[in-house]
Write the structure tokens for this entry.
Amino acid sequence: MVYLRSEEHLARWLDANGWEPGTTITASQTNDLARAWWWTRLDPGWRPRAADESQAILEGLGLTGEFWALR
Amino acid sequence: MDAFDLDVRRHVYFSVVANGRPPTVTEAADALARGEEEVAGAYRRLHDAHALVLFPGTTDVWMANPFCFAPTPHRVTAGGRSWTGTCAWDVLGIPGALHADGLVESECACCGEALELEVVGGELARGRELLVHILVPARRWWDDIGFT
């Protein structure tokens, strides 16, 4: 998961590496996702999250569809 | 994941926050007053459960996500220390995990130009215009977590 300055840079990067596109989100969306995903990681009582709970985090941020399906 | 493995994991993460790096198996065994083989077994089980990532063929911690202990282009200053994130997502997860503001220094994957993003009060105050590209679909993220 990498940062790119613009759509033009994204297209150039994919082309240079011969990669098929995955999906693109904004840095703001990524920050919202990162905050939700990792918020409890240092909690003393941390327990592994069930896949359904992780999927719910993605869905809550509008990250839905086949690409975002964890299973 | 049993109680011992959770204790070992908690010790690893608390050591990361306190010292800026994960404990070796020897250090963790000393701190927890347990045998090295016992702790090494917990490290391996935590790796298998995706609760830690070990460098291949070792019991050295590569990632205690979102924290990473190998060089990457993604750095963040948060909570009074400079950290490395595995990827564009994880590096923003470090201020999230620390519940702190953060200044991310990274680069454009295409041209290598230096980029800065700043998290203030949980919001992205700088770098909002940047894009993040994810090549690998979610169900395959753990196929090669270092590439995802």
Summary: The longest strand of chain B covers residues 114-120.
